[in-house]
Amino acid sequence: MSRVLVVGPGRAGAALARIHADRGDEVLVVGRRDGAWRRRIRRFGCRTALRPPLEIPPILILAVPDSKLVEVARNLARAVGRCPPELAVHLSGLHGLAPLAPFADRGARVAAAHPVLPFPARPGPEVLRGIPVSILAGAGAGAAVSRLVRTWGARPLSLPPGTDRRRYHLALALAANGVTGLLDWAAEILGRELGPAGPEIVLGLAGQALARCAEDGPAVALTGPVVRGDLPALAAHFAALRGRERRSYAALVRLLADRAERAGRLTKARARAIRRLARRHE
Question: What is the rounded CA–CA span in Å between residue 207 and residue 204?
């Protein structure tokens, strides 16, 4: 049995707290504000608190937003003084090891372990089963963080040296958050026309599109009026939109034209014509 402190009771923190509790570990989850999260976390068999303990357990997992990571790590390291955890891990895909320097300076092994997964609102105990978790380990932490990731049921993935974490994080945000945002928009548009059936149709179509991407690659799987160079269809789309939605669609059309031209699916002349049409609506 291990003792684990999870700072941050959001989706990722709750998921890892449940995984460790199901393994029989002693888990404490700390959040800044009181709320329903405490009842939810306690159902997993974890303890909860609004302040970290004076003695930090051997394993510390920082599951806080990227914008708060540096501040939380600095304040927590200052509070523990000369009694740091054995292993301090953060879950950010954007940050490297720099935010954990206050723990490393106090003798802790430090690592970043980023689950490549959009966590569900109600994570089950197998949520990370087989999921890649990119790891970046400080001195002496490689074996320990790999073991930790495997206890989650996940697959450790070492990023190549020199990986630009900004571009790494950007790509994953586009693949998960970007796709989800576009699906939400499409479901809203079709829902206005078809009612409850609209979102169901959108999600079914998106599933088929992702399957084609997996089979043929995104460049080949790309279809639709942009790839066909169908200016009248695109003009009809713009006519159906107003204001901010029209401007957002113009940016998307230009992006699709760029990708299609780069993949050789669209001639330069046709791509220029599509971009001109889009710019008129920005």
Answer: 5
CATH superfamily, region 3-163: NAD(P)-binding Rossmann-like Domain (3.40.50.720)
pTM score of the predicted model: 0.89
With a pLDDT cut of 90, the percent of the chain lying above it is 91
Indicate the class that CATH gives domain 166-280: mainly alpha
List beta partners, residue 157: 134
Q: Is 97 helix (H, G, I), strand (E, B) or coil?
A: coil
CA distance 132 to 172: 12
Residue pLDDT, tens place only, 188-220: 999 999 999 999 999 999 999 999 999 999 999
Residues in contact with 161: Cβ distance below 8 Å, sequence separation at least 6, in sequence order: none
Note whether 14 and 61 are within 8 A (CB): no
Cβ(160)–Cβ(149) below 8 Å: no
The residue ranges of every structural domain in the chain are 3-163, 166-280
Chain mean position to CA 142: 23
Cβ atoms of 76 and 50 within 8 Å: the answer is no
Report whether 57 contacts 34 (CB < 8 A).
Answer: no
The answer to whether the beta carbons of residues 270 and 229 sit under 8 Å apart is yes
Q: Where are the beta strands (DSSP E) in 144-235?
A: 155-158
